[in-house]
Amino acid sequence: MLQKQKSTRPANPGDSRKWYLVDAKDQVLGRLAVVIANKLRAKDTPSFDPSVDAGAFVIVVNAAQVKLTGKKEQQKEYQRYSGYRDGLKRFTAAQMRASHPDRIIKEAVWGMLPKNTIARKMMTRVKVFAGPTHTHEAQKPEVITL
Prior knowledge:
The protein is of the alpha/beta class. It is 29% helix and 18% strand.
């Protein structure tokens, strides 16, 4: 008699999530964002399930020194809409780097996640810092080298 194989779903890790540290200095933005998004979704684990939020925390330092290839520094545009008439604001990557360097990485990672409630929870686990210091030393993050 044949037995059915049971499929298991990974449990939500809760407080036992891993912490990773990524240095963005001289890293290409898109390639860095792929690594961060995969850690957030736990796609690098053998028990990956897209419907379970089992990913890790990711700390990114030196966000102000991330590299953009080609002419993206002047040509890439970010936009924000307030909801009011004539409320559309446009920023180049150079302007965004000068005012909010952490948002460049957050926007790139957000673009690589599915647009659902799980992804909105995942984005709260990305901690981006413009400089080389961060406030999460107590979590003892594992360093990722790219």
